[in-house]
Amino acid sequence: MKKIIPLFFFAVSFAYVESAVVVYLRELYYPDGFKFPLKLIPSNIGLIEVGREAATLVMITTIGFIAGKSRWQKISYSIFVFGIWDIFYYVWLKKFLNWPESVFTWDILFLIPVPWIAPVLAPVIVAITISIASTIVIYLLDKGRILLAEKKDIALIITGAIIILISFILDFKLATNGGIPDNYHWELLAAGELIGLLAFIKIIKR
Fold this sequence. Notes:
This protein has helices spanning 4-29, 43-67, 71-97, 121-142, 151-169, 172-176, 186-205, and strands at 106-110, 116-119. With 206 residues, it is mainly alpha-helical. Strands 1-2 form a two-stranded antiparallel ribbon.
């Protein structure tokens, strides 16, 4: 558990860097404030953004794999860092730009493989969930517990994650074609969270 604190500060600091980049991009392309409909940015800048997001995932995964020893530790540390990073990304944007206006403000969450769009509350719920779940796993492993995850449990967690992903990308064409999103699929988010949590609880109890 002693690694949790430095990893927490790494995630918070990395979130600062990530949000600072977004501040610069919004100053360039959304000087009047970020909002839908989206403005088209040059293709070369778009490709750089996709590369930056891919590099972010590589860095988060790498730090988790460096910190952990076992497979479960490596995965849990990576997920923990990702969750804290995602939460504080919005904390820093609120500090820098006083944005989002509310937790229901729409945002572009990610660009790989297609744009993810949702109200800010949706990714924050997921980030809080995975942060808590990964901390529990790290704690149990630190106490010498062995996690017995059956294939069907892993399949359910992956299924839940896919359902949540679908909720983010289902209406991406609307946003990329100049539309204004106004109806997020909260039922898919709830279903994905429930399926994943039930499988996770089953693993922990076992």
